[in-house]
Write the structure tokens for this entry.
Amino acid sequence: MGKVRGKMMWQDQMRGIYHITIKDMKTYYLKPPAISWGMVFPLAWTLAFYLRNPGDFAELVPGLLAMTIIFSTTAAEAVVINFELRLGTLERLLLAPLSMTAVLLGKVLGGFLFGLMMTAIVAAGAVIYLGLKPDFVGLALTSLISLMVFSSMGALFSVAVREVFEAQTLLNLPRFLMVFLCGVVYPVSALPEGLQLLSRLLPLTYTVQGLKASFLPIDGTVFIWDLLILLLFLILFLLPANSLLQRRFS
Amino acid sequence: MSQKNAAIIADKLTKRYGDLLAVDCISFHVDEGEIFGFLGPNGSGKTSTIRMLVGLTQPSGGRASVLGCHLPGDIYLARRYVGVVPDISNLYDELSARENLLFMARLYGVPRSQQNSRVDRLLQDFGLYERKEDHFATFSRGMKRALTIAAALVHEPRLLFLDEPTTGLDAAAARSLRSLISGLREKGLTVFLTTHYLAEADMLCDRIAILVRGRIVSIDTPEGLKRLVQEQSLIEFSFRGDVSGRIGALQSFLGELQASLLDSSRIRIYGGDPPRIFDAVFQFSRESGIGVESASTIRPSLEDAFLQITGLSPQVMAADKGSGKGRGVGR
């Protein structure tokens, strides 16, 4: 009896996560604002850097992908939870046989899935157009973990503030800080020592390192460390997001 | 308590928000198949009780079970068989009526083969089939309410929580919704209805619990509640001027009898000996210089029973009706 109940509950959670993800994709992500933030913005940004300093465009690809990952996942993630909290639609999800963690994961996976689509399009375009031969396993692992990390970061900002616009505004600070400090456009090694230290505290640094390692093979140990640190960031974002969401309802 | 076929059992259920005691040690049961009303003004603890019973918030004390599932441990299991209509219509603006219901059906694991037929039937039952492809955002308030109720029924629950279903609706929409709710009884559904509309509770409910400041002050059938005041005289006086500022003076003539102000120039007096009441009121009229326009003995309504039981003035409930409420189930 207990096992049957456990199985039913597990199925309920999995089904809920799946349908919330799909619903969020439809209602929030596959819309012009999310697409422009997720793909057009990183492309325009990269093009600007390329035009200012024309060189080997292939070198900019890991940075372009990193930007696509961070902007596509956080494009709507930072607002959807807060938005639904205000409208009361999140409460409706919680009235279904779903845990709060399952609802949060459904939301995070919405951002993840949208980010994955955008990143896959940009990566495929870059690889085909420039004839690059990346390590696909490394590229996939770095991208998938990073997409989860930044989608969770968006969720954390979304539940940490009361107003929808606050989440977007606050999130711009770490987003743009990371674009400049994490090796997206300037190598970390070219930064002053203090900023280099700061860059070590930011998750995008490890995404860029992982992506660079996928395109320009380096020592495998370093690559694994990048992934492990990204997993640590994932936990650091997901746990407080879950706890803050619980608190919003308590 | 007859709890053999109880859909809900609450035992000394308590909820505190910091220093505020929202629900104060309430005990009641709801039988399967009955429409149970939870009646009280805003802030009386109705929504907090629902929040505890559907697992949106943890009780500060006491115990509860819903459809045999003990809370909070079995809440996910209970929710498979429970539908909830919060006091706000909280479906997705960006989705059509049909998409909203399909999303809910999927969330609750309605078998794929039954999803479309069930959704279409509900849309027809609630008179929304013609608008099935229209976005929720384009619906009128009454249609939104109807679709929100339909969404709570899509997984064919055994127990439905309805939190203020008709608040903010115009008379026609409210009447139509009440008729739909009444129809749920025929389907054998247990309904837990919170409302501050006394007539609505009278019309729909098999039993009513009256909640004041977090405490249940009475539980009975609507007729039983009315009987409490039927044996007493109930006299309504209309004055030629404003007596709202002089109710204290009037009360001093009435002694222990209770006078309730209906509006600025009308009062009701419950119980007591009619000749003595007339004497007291006319004495007040002479001394205050405010003439009595009319006086009549009236048959007590549920509102009279409510006022007698709670000691609240009708203005409190009237103010609630106008306020449209500010707190939802999940906020």
